[in-house]
Input
Amino acid sequence: MVPSTGYNKTRTAVFISGTGSNLKSLIKFSKTTKSPISIDFIISNNPKAMGLNYAKKFKIKKKVLNFKNKILSEKKLLSVLKINKIDMICLAGFMKILSKNFIKKFKGKILNIHPSLLPKYKGLNTHKRALNNKEKYSGCTVHFVNSRLDSGKIVLQKKVKISKNETEDSLAKKILEQEHKLYPKAILKVFNL
Ligand code: GRF
Output
């Protein structure tokens, strides 16, 4: 990605479905001078997503689209993003799969964070599967989004050691803490900063 010209940061939308802790870390990062992005829109497929509260707290526009009719929701989504001059998308715990057509329209401009060391453990229940397989390490990955699930080019990864008495919850917590640091770092890397 090339940073926006002048003093303007690249206008970014964050897509969420739940708690939004990664959204919060991205908002904080976006307010620092070194950030090449500003967070200007929050999209959620879930009207009850806790992360939507950050819209009010940080005065960011938001929209809920239920994705029950994907074609229709994505049509509305594209129009909202266009009207708001959004040029980059960060998926952060967004539980819906975007269509090929949508991804094509934002080619090379959609990032996702995934709680495993990709290409291992694509999809759901990553921590459970890593523990069942007696892995010594897990971690998180920021990658570009392409039309195959969790398969786009990897930007950055952070390894996390799995301890002896690790549970799904403790591992999730440990990895999430790293996610909050990794996503901003990955954005800097994408912008060659
Ligand atoms: C994170 O672990 C992320 O990697 C995964 O879903 C979780 C979202 O957490 N895709 P939050 O909503 O950012 O707190």
About this structure: The chain has six helices and seven strands. The beta strands are 10-16, 37-44, 61-64, 88-91, 110-114, 137-144, 154-161.
